[in-house]
Design a protein that fits this description.
The protein is α/β, with parallel strands linked by helices and about 575 residues long. The protein is built from 18 helices and 15 strands. Among the domains are: about 190 residues, 3-Layer(aba) Sandwich (Rossmann fold), CATH 3.40.50.300; about 110 residues; about 35 residues, no CATH class. It starts with a strand and ends with a helix.
């Protein structure tokens, strides 16, 4: 349950703190006082997106914080554990909206992503907005109500996973078929490109190796001249460096025999002679290998030019050229084996449809069982809500597939929730046949049908908190009393927060809050307070009569509230 709601600098709400309690929490107030703002703020705690335009003028940020009692709530404990958040008997959910555009979310003072806040909201609260009953007029929502009633989330997850795989396969075969004519048109072009590339048959990094080899061959005459000169200067001339060093070494050796001081110098000089000898051998061998090969040079230049021409045509680099070659080889193979690939995908689609058909059949069977149960329960609740002779039916049908043969797994067309289509039918008058709800129900009846559905769904889901924002819209005072009693019944095992304009509903409150708007320092401010017993009586009386309250109004209010005084 929601224990405390704290709001600061949100629209007309400067700073309020509300302590809710178990049972039926009623919120009343004049139109425009700020009740809808309160609901909007609550919706932030459920993960709804928000704009910084709601920040109160002059404030840096808006804060909405809720403290929930979550003792023994295994789903919340599991979610907190998954997100590495410390668990406790209370859960603090906080949203902060900054004028700078940042939107921060916290669970127990730990920063989290908005989707985590939304998960928490789904586990704790069911908020029924002021106009949400109109969703019942959209037939596509009916299957969602039925599945929610039957807690079919897990089989739906399994089905949707396989349904996505079917869509993936169907996209692949559609793309493949759309490529068929294009491939046939391009096959000749691809064959030409393949032959053009294979005529040269470049290999990875070949352009770099040819460039390096060309650089050497194009400078072979200079290399021959330079190595010859180096060899002569080092070794093969009358005054070569090698001969000079040998002469110097002999003199140093003679000196070392006389004075040992030259012994170390003699060793160093010997190392120098060895180094010169090594360099000489390297230069000699390199020089001996140099060949002036004009034909090889010309061949390399021709190949280098051919590779560069292909690079220019097919991507600019050798890597891109080779990638293009692999691509066209694949396209040519695909064109040659097109029917085989189509056959493989058709077989995979057939197998996937068989898998889906089994899952969809299971879902359909469960829905048909649920339909009888929900029809009975809704009818019972509607009776309590002032529609005693109602007929409520859940019509489950299937659309035939464009592929009716058994080969395709099922004669029905798959959708994201199976192959069923669900529509609610209703009759609210004795002797009339049930007809589509979207065509025959009045606004007040739709509100009561939504309340009936919420009532039985709440029994199944065991959500801790139910919020109803003006669900009494469009109904009479007599029916309002029955709606109020339905809310009261729900509050016996749920915390219920309801915004209402109807005195018959407000009179049944366990805890009553009043929202009012006033001007403070030339600014409009909304505030909320918990009413004491006498204040509750006057508030119900005000809902009955308006601003001028008479003794008759007060007495009627007491009667509605069950006060015998």
């Amino acid at each position: 349950m929601l224990k405390t709601l704290y709001i600061k600098d949100y629209a007309l709400l400067e700073q309020i703190s509300i302590e809710f309690e178990k049972g039926l929490n009623i919120i009343t107030g004049e139109t425009g006082a700020g009740k809808s703002i309160l609901i909007d703020a609550m919706s932030l705690l459920l993960g709804e997106r928000a704009s910084n335009e709601v920040i109160r003028k002059g404030a840096e940020k808006a804060i909405v914080e809720g403290i929930f009692s979550t003792d023994k709530n295994k789903n919340i404990d599991r979610l907190l554990e998954q997100n590495e958040i410390e668990k406790s008997d209370e859960l603090i959910v906080r949203r902060e909206l900054s004028v700078k555009g940042s939107n921060r979310c916290f669970l127990n003072d730990t920063p989290v992503a908005l989707n985590v806040i939304k998960e928490v909201g789904n586990l704790l609260v069911d908020l029924h907005g002021q106009h949400e009953h109109q969703s019942l007029l959209r037939t596509e929502t009916h299957i969602e109500f039925l599945d929610e009633f039957g807690s079919l989330e897990q089989p739906l997850v399994e089905y949707k996973k396989e349904y996505e795989q079917l869509n993936k396969l169907q996209r692949e075969i559609t793309e493949l078929r759309s490529k068929e004519n294009l491939l046939k048109e391009k096959k000749d072009l691809y064959e030409f490109q393949r032959k053009e590339i294979e005529t040269v048959s470049p290999i990875e990094n070949e352009d770099e190796s040819i460039a390096a080899e060309l650089h050497i061959l194009e400078n072979s005459e200079q290399l021959l001249e330079l190595t010859t000169n180096v060899y002569q200067q080092l070794y093969d001339s009358e005054k070569s460096i090698y001969d000079s060093l040998i002469n110097v070494q002999q003199n140093i050796n003679a000196l070392a025999k006389i004075d040992k001081t030259f012994a170390e110098t003699s060793g160093e000089l010997q190392s120098v002679v060895a180094v010169i000898n090594d360099i000489t051998n390297v230069v000699r061998k390199y020089n001996a290998q140099i060949e002036l090969e004009p034909q090889k040079l010309e061949d390399l230049r021709s190949r280098f030019q051919a590779i560069n021409l292909l690079k220019k045509k097919y991507g600019g680099t050798l890597e891109a050229l080779l990638a293009h070659y692999e691509k066209i080889i694949g396209e040519i193979k695909l064109a040659e084996s097109f029917e085989d690939e189509i056959g493989k995908l058709e077989n995979a689609i057939h197998q996937q449809k068989e898998t889906l058909a089994k899952l969809a059949s299971t879902l359909s069977q469960k829905r048909n069982e649920l339909a009888k149960k929900i029809s009975k329960e809704v009818k019972e609740v509607l009776k309590d809500l002032g529609i005693p002779q109602s007929i409520f039916e859940v019509n489950i049908s299937q659309n035939a597939s464009e592929h009716n043969s058994q080969k395709n797994g099922t004669p029905f067309r798959f959708n994201s929730r199976g192959y069923d289509e669900v529509e609610f039918f209703i009759s609210t008058n004795l002797g009339e046949d049930a007809k589509p709800l979207s065509k025959v129900a009045s606004g007040g009846e739709v509100s009561r049908i939504m309340l009936a559905l919420k009532s039985i769904l709440a029994k199944n889901d065991k959500l801790p908190l139910l919020i109803f924002d003006e669900i009494d819209t469009g109904i009479s005072g007599r029916i309002s009393q029955k709606v109020g009693q339905a809310l009261k019944n729900l509050a016996a095992y749920h915390q219920v927060i309801s915004i209402t304009h109807q005195p018959q509903i407000a009179a049944l409150a366990d805890i009553h809050f009043s929202v009012e708007k006033k001007v403070v320092e030339e600014r409009v401010v909304s505030s909320i307070k918990k009413l004491k017993d006498e204040e509750r009586i006057r508030e119900v009386a005000k809902l009955l009569s308006g601003e001028v309250i008479t003794e008759t109004n007060l007495q009627t209010a007491k009667e509605l509230m069950g006060i015998q005084k």
